[in-house]
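Reader question, answered in our methods column.
A reader sent in the components of a multi-part assembly and asked whether the whole thing could be modeled at once rather than chain by chain. We filled in our standard form and ran it. Here is what they sent:
COMPLEX SIZE: two components
ENTRIES:
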Amino acid sequence: MGAAIVITAAHALTPLGADDTFIDALLAGRCALRPEPALAAHGHIARLLREGEGATKLLRACESWAESAREPGLAGITVHSTTKGPAAGGLPGGPAVAPFAFGARTISNACVSSAQALIDGAELLQDGRCDQCIVIGYDAITPFVAQGFRSLEADSALPARPFDRRRDGLSLGEAACAVVLRRDSDVPPARVLARLAGWGASNDANHISGPSRDGAGLALAIERALDGLDKSRVRAVCAHGTATRYNDAMEARAFHAAFGGHPPPVFGIKGAVGHTLGAAGLLEVIVSAHALGRGLVPPTVGFTEGETEFALDVIHGAPREIQPGLLLSTNSGFGGMNTAIVLETP
Amino acid sequence: MSTRLVAYARLSAQGLLSWSPASTIRTSWHSLAPEAGPLNLKARWFFDQPFPKFGRMDALSKLAMAAGQLVYRASNGFHGLKPREMAQVGGTMLGCLEVDAQFEATRLAGAPSPAMFVYTLPSMFQGELAIHYRLQGRCTLLSQGKLSGMAALDTALRWVGKRRVSSVLVIAADACGPLSSRLTGQAEHGEAYAYLIAGHGHGIRVVNAEGAEARPLARGDSALGCTWLDTLETHLLQGFTGAVKAVDGNESVSLQIG
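And here is the structure of the entire assembly that came back:
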């Protein structure tokens, strides 16, 4: 591990509101999922955009925030992420990254895109490539995406129910989010929202679109992220929790494997704001940072009753207080991609 | 840590090439089949065992898999490396645009194809490579315009140089088929470059060279996200020693060879 990296500012734009309003809504157990027959003809979607608006609006919102949040005079790099990967150099079919104060790179790794972008940004800082790094994650739901997931029969007709025994598929959502990363040694402690205590990534090497059955790939990513850290200090896990039968079962097995059969309490936000695809990883890191900061973990909207085959303490019904310590955020995506990011109370 | 290129492969309109410290093998497309080309690949030209899934992949994944197999052979089956720890870095400019258009056509026809939808993510070729060679290391895919391939190489060199991983398979590829050709105005073509980078073993020493005085690479025949990679190949394989850089507008990527 190189220099310690911290989050000094964060922005989240979701169908449940922005920033503190969004976090308050999560803590209150609110749900933004609604029927969207025009898009999906099947499931519920948490929409942020109006008819006729596209992903460019989400990207521009993040870029505007980043312009105001960045530190003038410091060298920086912007790392963008979406599942579709519009190129910094301009890719037909996706929004081009605007001329911006910083050099830009775009990372596209399916549903771990923005988690991988955060890791990339942290390492660019560690390697001295910049003094600050802005990481942006966003994704919009189009008929292309909604009907693609329908074709795979991955979506539910009902709002997603992560880790619930009756779960039967995901709900999609739109979000845009961004963070500013700095080296811990470069900023006063009062400005730190959360410290990145560790990160890891892996590939299942198992199936192109389905999660592995045994969770070994995700467990490997978690082990890499927690290398050198005291696992007993992990207060909770912000799980990917898509609410598909196989994903949630895979995650449960991975958590048991990584924590010696005694995983920490688990929560997920996709029952509230849907699966925000390329934005999901970063959005969940921001939620986790707020959870550590407030000492309060939001309930898992949509969860009522757990599986008997994998015993997990799923936080639901009401927020739960946590002590200062570590919080783990995990994501998985098509292509067998897994990421695990550990946050620490500043 | 000193990082090394231990094996290399390329598929482009100019033909196929695979390199290791022990040998360089050049193959013409015509020697494979009269109809062979970067956008018309058959599994049997590259793989010893039947590989029916290859035929169902999108053009980008086929290019990446073929390049991956060439570099796998050149390295004697990733000899001396640990697949469980081998990472992947990809670079592409067009990404999955070709299969995006194909999937959209099925959707508009009222029967969206799940088999195509799976490939409408630019990083899917990394998943295929991971499955085929049991690679369980970290993966990232960069789309940085014409610098995509060079940036992927630069990232892999940082990962190994900083000891985050012990080896990286880098694939830079673009598939510009009939649909994406119409959208981009580029001529139809495909190319893929595979680099096996490791922190040990025999090979050409290559390291990051940010800020160094560097010789600008000329733009050769490579295009899109692989721009500069054919001229980089010439420098790598003809014994050049020194720093080179690819410049695109205000951005550049520099590498030190030797």
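What stands out: Confidence is low (pLDDT under 50) at residues 87-93 of chain A. Residues 55-69 of chain A form the longest helix (15 residues).
Send us your own complexes using the same form.
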